[in-house]
Amino acid sequence: MYHVLSAHQFDRIQLDQLFRMADIMEYNAKNGGTNLLQGKIMAALFFEPSTRTRFSFESAMMRLSGSVISTENATQFSSAIKGETLEDSIRVISSYADVIVLRHNEEGAAKRAAQVAGVPVINAGDGSGEHPTQSLLDLYTIQKELGAIDGLKVAMVGDLTYGRTVHSLSYMLAKYEKVTVYFVSPENCPIPEKVKAYLDERGVTYFEETDLEKVSGEVDVLYMTRIQKERFPSGEEYLKAAGKYVINQEIVDGMKPNAIILHPLPRAGEILPEVDGDARAAYFRQATNGVYIRMALLAYCLKEQQLERDLEALAEVLK
Amino acid sequence: MYHVLSAHQFDRIQLDQLFRMADIMEYNAKNGGTNLLQGKIMAALFFEPSTRTRFSFESAMMRLSGSVISTENATQFSSAIKGETLEDSIRVISSYADVIVLRHNEEGAAKRAAQVAGVPVINAGDGSGEHPTQSLLDLYTIQKELGAIDGLKVAMVGDLTYGRTVHSLSYMLAKYEKVTVYFVSPENCPIPEKVKAYLDERGVTYFEETDLEKVSGEVDVLYMTRIQKERFPSGEEYLKAAGKYVINQEIVDGMKPNAIILHPLPRAGEILPEVDGDARAAYFRQATNGVYIRMALLAYCLKEQQLERDLEALAEVLK
Amino acid sequence: MYHVLSAHQFDRIQLDQLFRMADIMEYNAKNGGTNLLQGKIMAALFFEPSTRTRFSFESAMMRLSGSVISTENATQFSSAIKGETLEDSIRVISSYADVIVLRHNEEGAAKRAAQVAGVPVINAGDGSGEHPTQSLLDLYTIQKELGAIDGLKVAMVGDLTYGRTVHSLSYMLAKYEKVTVYFVSPENCPIPEKVKAYLDERGVTYFEETDLEKVSGEVDVLYMTRIQKERFPSGEEYLKAAGKYVINQEIVDGMKPNAIILHPLPRAGEILPEVDGDARAAYFRQATNGVYIRMALLAYCLKEQQLERDLEALAEVLK
Fold first, then answer.
1. Which of A131, A144, A175, A263 is catalytic?
2. Domain co-membership, C179 together with C118
3. Sorted alphabetically, which Gene3D superfamilies does this protein's record hold (chains A, B, C) (predicted)?
4. Is C67 on the interface with B (CB under 8 A)?
5. With an 8 Å Cβ cutoff, is A33 touching chain B?
6. Going edge to edge, which strands form the sheet with B121-126?
7. DSSP summary character for residue A205
8. B190 to B227, C6, C159: CA distances (angstroms)
9. Residues of A in contact with B92 (CB under 8 A)
10. Same domain (yes/no): B223, B248
11. How many CB pairs under 8 A join A and B?
């Protein structure tokens, strides 16, 4: 059975295949859809609310003509007791659905689920763990917008210490050739040592910087994230740091003509709305790509499962 | 792109067309449905819960073979931050869905959403603003039940100062010929001056009254609404006022044989259950009509959008 | 119109028919599904959350190609008032959906709903009243696993005073021949007199026991339920009682080779996970059977309703 638990599970060849599938999914979605998953059911099992991610997965499933059962309140999975194990819930839902999309607050939850599930599990974020479909759509957007990832200069900006997305993106970029990474953050929330060690091992060039404008004109990709207020000792210091990393039209005007600005969204002031109309503002296209990537993953998991079942049935007949 | 933001956007000819479409939708719904919107996705984006309105829209979309992604908890649209702008949420959902049904607590929210949406927006109520599909289903029910709206006598009863539905219905009735309106309310919650000024300008005859039984025998339509307790200085005065406007079988017996009683529902004692079996009690039929009106609006918005996209694609080819 | 309000409404012949239908539904579900209810809408109207039961019904409806409108928050059915009557809500939803699945906290709610509904109502649990689909899936599982119900020895274990499922199962077993029932409970929560009186009347042999291990080796079916902490005067006494009724591998090893262990789930420690892999652990298969039983019931209700409507239409034409 094929689960999507971590972005790391994909090697370069698989990424290329996935992105080609996503291209085809976009074509399907824009041309009347496809019946690929007709009759299949996806369970969206969210232990914490994330309507954006849930909608993206549900939209993907419906574009494939599949059906959806859904909760953002999975902690109340049973009215009878609190504290049914995740394992029991997953086992039961395996008989209701053909694929489970799991969002959980605990790191490692997706892996635990996959160990007992009777159907494929897709990790839609497990606490401080992984959120592989976000990483994959980020990477897919870069490739789609710029034609290739090899050789690109990528800046990641904001709170880099706790930002799950920038860590994942760093790891994924290391699978490509001659990428240069610029980590731009306030001094109190730098990129962690483990990420740098990972890049060192793989020979990825990177720089650390606190001044956004020193790099914004150099890079092909400007990946913005939120500065989180609670990291700063005082509101004053927060404002000073946050104010340094605000993308306005002036900064965009200084960027390369073919560069792109990405953001995992929601934004909270890091990118001014005045920039939205610029062709380099790619963050809403990025959100759209999420649907195509998720369509590709759902299709892959379920078709692979169908094949397994068919083979089992065949083996049974031949026995 | 065609949005449904206000009942005012429909002129008399468009209303007639819409009501004919709703008739056809009823036929479709009762005869095995239609595949008109197969492959299309509706997002029900509710910033405040209103299961009744949500169910009505979702049922309408499903009767057209469309799919639905849905939340009544859109304030939690993102788990990451509070206060993403409505505009950003709408932009992102535009890539998940083909039409957005928006319920919001702030007046003007639907219009703001329409300005940035990549897909049609239907206003499902924005605070003290508009709730156009309610007005349209009210008007449709009157026409369907009584054959025509011109020349009718319509009483509106209850708290007329804050009742959004009765204001909208008043404005809509002004589009018809020789309608007479009776405003029946306690003295402390009369119909506002602005509504009366509007009717004056358009030459609509109206009367103000506090005694329901003086008009109930005269009118073709008795439109009941709730009296809201918090408007009254004391519980005693509330009960006195509320008690004056309770439809019982005796009052119904004194009504014209072909008159109808409407109510936007839910009711809270203004109409006794003993009346439900009377042929003049049209409020549950009114709720049913809501599905047909919403089917007609969804079909219109999405077919118009399809046409636009096809024309764009054609223009692209011809370029 | 055919409602599913109580497990009692089914006689032995109807149960056999239902179980045959459930077998066919399983075949359908595993072989690409069926379009039996295409174009039909099920409303899941839950006045208290029970994601497990809701998912099971929604999955069943979708396996039949039907659509679903759904809320676990039906107490907020209207944002306008608290306390709309259940009857009014049901009347309105009858115009949105083709079948209503109702979960309510008040005993008798399903029956009240059925009296005013314009469409079939299926009781998904009404307070301390009935939860007929649970009883039916329990019974179906026994028959499916063991081939027949006549002549079986069935133990029910746990809090038998308040356990709705064990009461219902007792009543249902009385419809079969030569069943022997063992009630195993702590002394302070025995099976109620009314259940015993019912079995006495119908000549069903039963025994009361406090020691699980005295019966576990004898029976064909071990039906486990939760011991509820709040029934015990002290935490210490609870632990003593609860600890007596924990199924571990040692107990399972002492059971008949073809016996089965059932549990309505969720479990809270009554069955250790070490037992899950044993072929006699049938509780997850039991949950799966719930989907097939609900498919059969939905199909039956809606096909019966279609037939009624067709006959009415025919009568209209012939008039």
1. A131
2. no
3. Aspartate/ornithine carbamoyltransferase
4. yes
5. yes
6. B67-71, B41-46, B99-104, B121-126
7. E
8. 12, 50, 60
9. 52, 265, 284, 287
10. yes
11. 70
Question: The CATH number of the domain where B125 resides is what?
Answer: 3.40.50.1370
pLDDT tens-digit series, residues A233-256: 788 878 877 788 999 999 999 999
Same domain for A88 and A181, yes or no, is no
Q: Considering only alpha carbons, which residue of chain B is nearest residue A60?
A: B96
Burial readout C11-49 (b: 16 or more C-beta within 10 A, e: otherwise): eeeebeebbebbeebbebbeeebbebbebbbbbbbbbeb
Residues of chain B with C-beta less than 8 angstroms from the C-beta of A284: 91-92, 95
In a domain, C307, yes or no: yes
Higher pLDDT, B102 or C313: B102
The string of pLDDT tens digits covering residues C51-65 is: 999 999 999 999 999
Domain boundaries, position A242: 133-281
On the CB side of C58, how many CA atoms lie within 13 Å of its CA?
28
Cα-based angle B55, B289, B175 (whole degrees, multiple of 5): 120
Tell me whether residue B2 is in a domain.
Answer: no
Contacts of B89 in chain A (CB under 8 A): 266
* Count of domains for chain A: 2
Contact B59 C92 (CB under 8 A): no
Judge whether C63 counts as a catalytic residue: no
Indicate if B85 belongs to the active site. no
Whether residues B124 and B175 share a domain: the answer is no
pLDDT in tens, chain B (319 residues): 899 999 999 999 999 999 999 999 999 998 878 999 999 999 999 998 899 999 999 999 999 999 999 998 887 765 555 568 999 999 999 999 999 999 999 999 999 999 999 999 999 999 888 899 999 999 999 999 999 999 999 999 999 988 889 999 999 999 999 999 999 999 888 999 999 999 999 999 999 999 999 999 999 999 999 887 777 778 887 887 778 899 999 999 999 999 999 999 999 889 999 999 999 999 999 999 999 999 999 999 999 888 888 888 889 888 8
Helix (H) or strand (E) holding C218: none
Is the CB of B92 inside 8 Å of chain A's CB atoms? yes
Token readout for A114 is 């996959």
Cα B42 from Cα B45, distance rounded (Å): 9
- Residues C165, C246, single domain; the answer is yes
Chain A touched by B17 (CB under 8 Å): no
**Same-domain pairing of A295 and A248:** no
